[in-house]
Amino acid sequence: MASRYDCTDPDGLLTGMRLARAALGRGELVVVPTDTVYGVAADAFSATAVQRLLDAKGRTRQSPPPVLIPGPPTLEALATEIPQQVRDLVDEFWPGGLTVILRAQPSLDWDLGETRGTVALRMPDSRIALELLQEVGPLAVSSANSTGDPAAMDVDQAESMLGDGVSVYLDGGPLAVHDGFAASTGSTIVDATGLSTGGKLTIVRHGVIADEDIVRVVGADLVT
Which Enzyme Commission number(s) are on file for it (predicted)? Predict the structure, then answer.
């Protein structure tokens, strides 16, 4: 049976984080608040855990999850061919709602699905998520909902969709919708793999970071 912990209470946070670490170490799933929506997390280096995440959401290996990281130094460890434009975006929007697709380090011992040698990375602007990431390392994280349903903005919504498929629910309270948006919105996803071969950066998903802000940092001639 899933356990739920009120992370707005210091005791609940302490206990919830301890049990979340243990669950992730066993290859189980944890729901955690981020700065955009609630996410369901798995150890990025456990193929079994990542498959559990995909199964819980009703996704196939053709939809690999992004990876949340605790900071820019981890970007260097997980990705290769990091163009200056990406470094500029990270300086501007991390921690925050920007996910960057880059070439993954070929030596990484993980299996996120059919990534074609890439990885989608983000540093979230969430105290609870960052504390967990700093303690356990990179996590494969996708929105805490069944595929096709709206993203969860509180633990009740996440639990109603994912149920006992998740071992630990970290309750950070209801998340606010970002300014300028009518409903829950995920991170903006950009594919930067083309920049290293003389191509352009592609905005894959329009999210909480506005397109014009991406263009402002990278330059209109390098964004599609």
Answer: 2.7.7.87
